[in-house]
Records
---
Amino acid sequence: MPGQKVDYFECILCSKRTKPTDRRTVNKDIKKYLRRKFLIEAPENSVICNKCRHVYRNETGKTNVYAPVRCASTTTSDDSSSKKKTLSSPPSVSLALASTAKSHAYCCVCKKPGPKLVVVPTESRTNVFVDKNILIPPGNRCCPVHLDNDSGMFTSDAVQQLKTTENAFLNRTTISELLQQMRILCQRNEKTVFGL
């Protein structure tokens, strides 16, 4: 209708008109960030678009920007953000190692679908890595016939059938577990060699 006032909500940082689903009010932490980084003084009821908010989150390491404000703790926000930055790592790292495809629904050896698949034991995955330099992601499944009934290790025929890719994508947990398994294996071998 003519003569009716329309309120436009522009992002305080990029001046883009924001849709109701694409805007958030500027809180105290974002005001400090805008003042320090861009010399922008945000007035009351200012809004920020999602794109600019994500830039803020990435630069400051804040994960929950709109959590309720709590009382000040003994550590400063600069200390906590620097700790977060030192602990952060990429979700996965690409290594030039042969690896089987990651799947819960198919056998990692013969690629047959379930339902009677079993999770590949950790010792068997470590053994294949040591002997053949092939990584099998944790949680991968295989047909029970590919595992030796007595030891739970892959049969020699099953190891020959493993189809691999050229790169392996590993996260922090997988790398830590692999190093731990290698450490256990080295300790076992040391005890066997020295007769302890």
Note: The chain has six helices and eight strands.
---
Amino acid sequence: MAEAAHTISRTLTPEQIAAIKQATWDVLPQCQEFLTSLIRIDTTNPPGKNYPECAKLIGDTLIRLDSEYAVEYVEVPSDQLSTLAPMGSGLPRVNVIGRLSGTQGISGKTLHANGHFDVVPIGSPKNWKYPPFGGEVHGGRMYGRGTADMKGGIAAQIFAVEAIRRAGLKLKGNIEQSGVVDEETTGVHNAGMGYLVDNGYIRADRIDAIVITEPLNTTNVCCGHRGTIWGTITFRGRLSHGSMPGLGVNALHHACSFVHLATTTISPNLAPLSDANVIPPVARVPSLAFTILQAGENINSVPDVAVLSFDRRLVPGETLADARKQIFDVLESMKKTPGFEELDYEYKEDYHTEATWVDPNLPISLVFRDAIKVVTGQEAGVVCSPGSDDQRFPVHSLTPPIQSTIVYGPGYISEAHIADESIDIEKELRVGMEVMALAFASFLGVEQA
């Protein structure tokens, strides 16, 4: 942390720091009001409701705060929806980007702040004490789906820039704000951040750093995420009457045997790969979980098909190729085992992404780490997310990649996807906004307006 110790104080005067801090309190009521409006738009995904309305709210808010924002709406062509949004029921996919030029124009640095505004389903309404799309505040916390994951991050990133303006300062560098769709339904490519990257809206030659405002604890800078394979293995056998199983080839038996062998041979070898940066601690060890097994149609027939679904999570340092090889090695070893000579299987992946880790000592990481120390008095944690997020697109899908892509946002990951999801207005939303405002100002530079 020594290199980052004086980042904020070297680039901002004590008066500027104090003005930005005070401005975050001044804009907090507007930020809260905006977040309430976001929460009250039901953007449940799947299927992806009300995306155009939510994108427009974000775009209109940017222009209302600063008329110099250039706002662009990026709609995915309808003929690509079946591929990029297969669970979207044909509903429109609209992303929004707001670009604000700094005083240095194209010669200045550009920072891109990104958040997704789709949210996961609420589950049973009976499990919610407060309305899931109400944005109600009780005891200083706002409740509703998306407060933490991650409409709160979008509100904080937008009003962090407004706090800089309200402090009487103007950014030298350029700031971009994006609100995207379909993060929650992942995909190797998707209709949100993936679409922006694949179609040139986010380019390495134009953007110096990206901050994705997911919640990983307001005092943590996240420099990566675990990798993932979601896949299915279809075992094929031969039907027979249940009273004469020897005439058939039991696909269910093959699937269950594979589960046993994979669990006893692959899983023990994963423990030594534990990564201490991953939070929470229970997610530090890479994992292989078998999650769905479908086989058989009636009780007196030996099944000829069994479909097994699995979830493999990788920590940084592992590769998708290594994870796949582990699975195929078990399958091929089964073929050489007596009783499995007729083993027939088909392997398919529904989704995959490499594990991601970027240097925590890159300038964008250091300035956020220092901003956290200035705001909270605590040393920033440097962590790795247990699940994948949109960081993967600029890091893995661009050539050259934007390695200077980190994750920082207000709130706690433990609030994501739960009933009565919430965020603390002052201790999380405002603190996160203050960290962002100081980091944005330090990274891009400021001058008196």
Note: Confidence is low (pLDDT under 50) at residues 1-5.
